[in-house]
Amino acid sequence: MTAPQTLADAISSISHISTAVTFRHATTSDSKVIAQLVNSAYRGDSSRAGWTTEADLLEGTRITAERVEELIEVQNSLILLCLKDHNIVGCVHLQRNKDGCYLGMFVVKPELQGSGIGKTFLQAAESLVQNLWDIKKIWMTVIDIRTELIAFYERRGYCRTGKTKPFQSEQGNEVSLVDNLQFEELEKILPL
Length: 192
Prior knowledge:
31% strand, 192 residues, 5 helices, acyltransferase activity, transferring groups other than amino-acyl groups
């Protein structure tokens, strides 16, 4: 497979995946909206509208707008946005390295979870990294007691690697409400 030359080409190559939503890469001007979306999907009462809430596991800010800006600006990293009616309803952070691509901060607006947008968006993100970076392997970490979330990814072809690591707040301002939280690694070998 020959990777497209530009990010615009790669995003154009995934536009056929859905007519209900569109995709674009984030810019630093999106940072505040992305941080609000991520925090509303994982923390506090607003997150309870969806099934991906971590409100009973962790409290504190999941990510700041400043950290989102850093992720957007770092080399071999991008945040892909999912839009419905021109409004940001999802985001995912994709970080390339020598082994493949790390997928993190995967979010769909809580009130739209369960509508199929997440499945479509995940497929688009996987296609994008294949087209842009010629990636064969994608992996993520999920809190190990989030069995329903792990099952969602397993239904999409992700496998548990057996690797775990203790939960550690990236921002340093998240407080665990549950003892001994761990991240479990999942990976998927993308089809050629």
